[in-house]
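We were asked to recover a plausible sequence for a given structure. The inputs and outputs are reproduced exactly as logged, with field labels preserved.

PROBLEM: sequence recovery
POSITIONS: 779
GIVEN STRUCTURE:
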């Protein structure tokens, strides 16, 4: 039986969940689908002289905004991944070409091209429901008029919300309009048109012939002819989706699909010829032998069909206009308006709609509650991946992704210049519209022993028996395991995510407890928000960010443009055009809002971790960066910062001498002073030295220390390199530090044992800071 206090806690938490970013999983499922981005030539560069950004990277960047769109009528997007490839398989496929090709460099070019081709596969994970309007049409019976009005209203609600973000669906069809277990509509794949740049970045058209609007068909398929200056097609507007709704509603009214006996070209021609008739609804009914059914429809349903199937786009209503029409006067009363929940860092009251029912007796009887279904889809997907889930593996198991035998990939004829003939058309570049449901069985099996208390922890209880964590004893023991193991442990991450999620929702009231838990570790899923809490970010950050002028040209723009393409470009997200644009805006906002400071090279590297973790919230990335620099890099970005850096390096030299006199003397004797290697360390807080995934762990600890803590990190790095530094002279030390990002010491430093030793070194160094300060005063 559930205790009274815990039961009330569950109710309060469930109500608060309505205010969170993502909706809970509930009865929905997760699905995976895949498609190919169009490949780009290797011998073409952009206008900036750099290689072209792969279309898959562009799509990945545009996809991110889709993760922030939440509405009851839209299937939530969760993740997108680029396809993996096995280089050994590629070599097998191309090995037979060695007999034909004489020059080795031609073989290498072919290998690179095919590798790139496989890397252009994209796999999308999103909310999914097994049932759709396709199932209603499969029954072959007309749908009741009352239900048709409800379906139309719910579809229009989803489209209206999309239009607020400047997006249109363009791929509406019965099988993309899903139905949840309560029969409510959810629009699937609503972001495909947006993420592919209106179809430019893929080799297949967006949309289905029978449901395309006449103006879309008339425009045709426009593909860019020049990669440097692409001719982008005119994007479709919201009214194109209204035509698609009209065709779908017509099919529901008559219980059958339209244009099924026609070939694709005939279907497109048939739709275009509808512009020559006055009453499109009647003509369609006559051609498909269902005029009696159409004439029997109520006046409001007939009016809806005629308004949707208006040939001229200028006379066709938008989803927003249709929702305000008197057609839905009766239906609209059954639906409450959707209000987007307030974000964590906003000026609005997040608990405005929080209510506690007085009677919790029914809740206390619910002992078989599916607690996992109460978590957000984002959390469930993250845990699913930790439990061994793999998107590509699921698609391979369902034979959506198939591999051909190498012999089947050979051409019949190959010219000396590399042009091949006789290969069958690769249909994998076309769209496979299948969605594979992701099984949660393995995840639920892993969490079967996790009690309900773990999903709803009480934060106000006195848990003195757990000095380091609010988790149970077993989880406290797990906190002593290496960090990399903890981050991959499903049960441990579940408890940490739930705990941090609750603490962050109580921020800033629970700020001290967030600090306490962060000393154990920070769950990767909530690292961005946790860092913001540790940095003390508060208030209406979006309003402050919007108030900064990021459009007016300034002298720093040129340097920012040069630096961004060189900043952590190994990361797919930051290397995307969308990532570059966000980089530019955040950096410029910081420069403009700090007139007493200037842009120094390295500021882009400093911005990278915050932008990566808050990719969909530039305002939060800017706020974190603005709070981080005054604390750890005070006056480092003055126009004349030489005296500040020299003072900083002097203290660093003193700390090296105090902690390791032998090493300090050796470096001084060979003239290898901190000015030669440590300035990039401290100016970028080591982001110019280490890759992002290692910076995250480093900064998890850094943000818990004060402004002097970076000295400890610097000394700890030198301790890792101590033996090699003592054994070498000036030239070798210069080479050692120039190769540091690729050196073995980096991986060694982040291994299980060495990481613990690294932290012990930093803590021990931190204790010597008081002694160092006395030395400074003496000097």
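RECOVERED SEQUENCE:
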């Amino acid at each position: 039986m559930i205790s009274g206090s815990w039961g009330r806690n569950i109710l309060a938490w469930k109500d608060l969940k309505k205010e969170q970013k993502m909706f809970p999983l509930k009865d929905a499922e997760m699905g995976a689908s895949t498609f190919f981005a169009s490949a780009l030539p290797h011998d073409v560069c952009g206008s900036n002289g750099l290689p072209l950004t792969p279309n898959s990277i562009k799509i990945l960047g545009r996809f991110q905004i889709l993760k922030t769109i939440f509405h009851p009528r839209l299937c939530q997007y969760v993740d997108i991944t680029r396809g993996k490839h096995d280089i050994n398989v590629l070599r097998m496929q191309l090995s037979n070409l060695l007999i034909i090709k004489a020059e080795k460099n031609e073989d290498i070019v072919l290998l690179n091209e095919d590798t790139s081709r496989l890397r252009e596969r994209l796999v999308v994970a999103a909310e999914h429901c097994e049932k759709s309007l396709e199932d209603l049409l499969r029954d072959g019976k007309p749908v009741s008029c009352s239900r048709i009005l409800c379906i139309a209203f719910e579809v229009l609600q989803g489209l209206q919300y999309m239009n607020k973000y400047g997006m249109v669906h363009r791929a509406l069809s019965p099988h993309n309009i899903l139905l949840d277990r309560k029969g409510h509509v959810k629009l699937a794949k609503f972001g495909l048109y947006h993420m592919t740049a209106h179809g430019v970045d893929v080799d297949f058209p967006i949309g289905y012939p029978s449901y395309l609007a006449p103006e879309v068909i008339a425009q045709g398929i426009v593909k860019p002819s020049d990669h440097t200056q692409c001719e982008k097609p005119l994007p479709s507007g919201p009214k194109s989706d209204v035509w698609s709704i009209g065709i779908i509603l017509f099919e529901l009214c008559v219980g059958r699909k339209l244009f099924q006996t026609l070939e694709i070209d005939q279907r497109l021609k048939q739709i275009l010829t509808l512009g020559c008739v006055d009453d499109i609804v009647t003509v369609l009914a006559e051609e498909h032998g269902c005029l009696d059914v159409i004439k029997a429809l109520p006046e409001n349903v007939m009016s809806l069909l005629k308004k949707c199937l208006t040939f001229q786009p200028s006379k066709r209503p938008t989803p927003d206009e249709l929702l305000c029409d008197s057609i839905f006067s009766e239906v609209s009363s059954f639906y409450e308006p959707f209000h987007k929940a307030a974000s964590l860092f906003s000026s609005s009251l997040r608990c405005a709609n929080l209510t506690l029912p007085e009677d919790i007796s029914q809740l206390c009887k619910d002992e078989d509650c599916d607690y996992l279904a109460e978590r957000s889809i984002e959390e469930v997907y993250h845990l699913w991946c930790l439990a061994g889930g793999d998107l590509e593996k699921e698609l391979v198991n369902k034979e959506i992704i198939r591999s051909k035998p190498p012999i089947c990939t050979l051409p019949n004829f190959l010219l000396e210049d590399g042009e091949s003939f006789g290969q069958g058309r690769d249909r994998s570049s076309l769209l496979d519209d299948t969605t594979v449901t992701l099984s949660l069985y393995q995840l639920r099996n892993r969490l079967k022993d996790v009690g309900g208390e773990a999903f709803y922890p009480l934060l106000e209880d006195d848990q003195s028996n757990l000095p380091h964590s609010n988790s149970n004893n077993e989880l406290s023991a797990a906190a002593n395991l290496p960090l990399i193991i903890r981050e991959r442990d499903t049960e441990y991450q579940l408890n940490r995510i739930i705990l941090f999620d609750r603490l962050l929702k109580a921020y800033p009231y629970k700020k001290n407890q967030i600090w306490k838990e962060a000393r154990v570790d920070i769950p990767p899923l909530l690292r961005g928000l946790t860092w913001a809490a540790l940095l003390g970010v508060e208030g209406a950050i979006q309003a402050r960010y919007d108030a900064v002028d990021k459009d007016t040209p300034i002298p720093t723009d040129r340097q920012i443009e040069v630096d961004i393409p060189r900043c952590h470009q190994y990361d797919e997200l930051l290397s995307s055009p969308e990532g570059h644009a966000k980089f530019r805006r955040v950096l410029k906002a910081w420069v403009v809002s700090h007139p007493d400071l200037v842009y120094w090279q390295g500021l882009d590297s400093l911005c990278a971790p915050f932008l990566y973790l808050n990719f969909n919230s530039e305002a939060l990335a800017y706020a974190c960066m603005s709070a981080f620099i005054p604390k750890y890099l005070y006056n480092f970005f003055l126009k004349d910062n030489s005296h500040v850096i020299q003072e900083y390096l002097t203290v660093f030299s003193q700390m090296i001498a105090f902690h390791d006199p032998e090493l300090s003397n050796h470096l001084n004797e060979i003239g290898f002073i901190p000015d030669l290697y440590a300035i990039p360390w401290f100016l970028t807080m080591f982001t110019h030295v280490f890759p992002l995934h290692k910076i995250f762990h480093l900064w998890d600890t850094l943000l818990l220390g004060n402004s002097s803590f970076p000295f400890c990190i610097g000394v700890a790095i030198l301790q890792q390199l101590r033996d090699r530094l003592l054994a070498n002279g000036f030239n070798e030390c210069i080479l050692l530090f120039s190769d540091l990002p690729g050196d073995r010491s980096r991986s060694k430093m982040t291994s299980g044992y060495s990481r613990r030793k690294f932290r012990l070194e930093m803590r021990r160094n931190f204790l010597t800071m008081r002694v160092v300060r006395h030395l400074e005063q003496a000097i």
